[in-house]
């Protein structure tokens, strides 16, 4: 038993753009903000990344909820944060997962988190973790 998904990042999580602004333009705008030294623009980048992390955690928590105790959760093709050079549209860093397990109170074994750098796309990675607990057997001897 396992649960797995791909978490589609939120484009423009702070809703700074009208709905008719093309996706690509939103990403380019965000990447431009990443290069800024302006304090208010850096704050937008920080809040955008926090919203992205909260979104990813929401999906991870749901997968953890539905998987049986002791079983595996897999998140595939995770992108890095939008300000990373190779990012296509934004995601979370590989380092985020260990910290997120504690911050978001995930019901997992923190030592079970494994990052696999080889993924379908060149600049993505996969994550595997195990839910706390053991599976109870219904088989009697």
UniProtKB/TrEMBL annotation:
Domain of life of the organism encoding this protein: Eukaryota
Protein name per the record: Methyltransferase
Organism: Trieres chinensis (Marine centric diatom)
């Amino acid at each position: 038993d396992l649960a797995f998904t791909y978490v589609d990042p939120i484009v423009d999580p702070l809703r700074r753009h009208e709905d008719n602004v093309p996706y690509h333009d939103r990403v380019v705008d965000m990447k431009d903000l990443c290069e800024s030294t302006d304090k208010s623009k850096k704050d937008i980048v920080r809040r955008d990344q926090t919203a992205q992390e909260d979104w990813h955690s929401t999906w991870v928590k749901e997968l953890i909820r539905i998987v049986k105790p002791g079983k595996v959760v897999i998140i595939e093709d995770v992108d890095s944060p939008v300000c990373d050079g190779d990012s296509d549209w934004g995601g979370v860093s590989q380092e985020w997962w260990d910290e997120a397990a504690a911050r978001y109170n995930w019901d997992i074994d923190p030592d079970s988190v494994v990052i696999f750098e080889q993924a379908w796309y060149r600049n993505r990675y996969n994550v595997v973790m195990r839910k706390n607990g053991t599976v109870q057997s219904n088989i009697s001897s």
